[in-house]
Design goal:
Immunoglobulin-like, four-stranded antiparallel beta sheet
């Protein structure tokens, strides 16, 4: 073999090793997050949301609700022992504003999130009364 062939072979091996390390590091984190399945859905135009979490596996998972200023409104930990988690959260007692429901893994990766806004609609009725003379 000549020197150029040996150099090309060494460069090719180095590239394959680097590519395998990069994909291994990325796959480990993605697989752990991808294994957790979630769904956050509003309950038929109400101020309640259903939250489902499955396949927690060996990770701790947190359900977190925060307001627009990142103030914590609600937090619940889901144990890795739980195969499934389902809960309905009622937000009818909250003030008007923007809120976010987040499902986070133990290393604070966002698995799923939903942002919503509460607005109070007020109907104003105005009447005219004409004085009779």
């Amino acid at each position: 073999m000549n020197k150029n062939t040996v150099k090309a072979f060494i460069v090719a091996i180095a590239m394959v090793c680097t590519s395998n390390l990069t994909s291994f590091a990325g796959t480990t984190n993605d697989e752990a997050t991808a294994s957790v399945k979630t769904k956050i859905s509003q309950v038929s135009k109400s101020l309640s949301f259903n939250i489902w979490v499955e396949n927690v596996a060996s990770k701790k998972v947190v359900v977190l609700v925060v307001d627009a200023d990142k103030n914590e409104i609600y937090r619940e930990y889901i144990s890795p022992k739980d195969a499934k988690f389902a809960k309905t959260l009622d937000f009818s007692n909250l003030n008007d504003g923007k809120y976010t429901i987040e499902v986070l893994s133990s290393n604070v990766d966002v698995i799923d999130s939903k942002t919503f806004e509460i607005k109070t609609n007020q109907t104003v009725n105005r009447d005219i009364v004409v004085a009779i003379r």
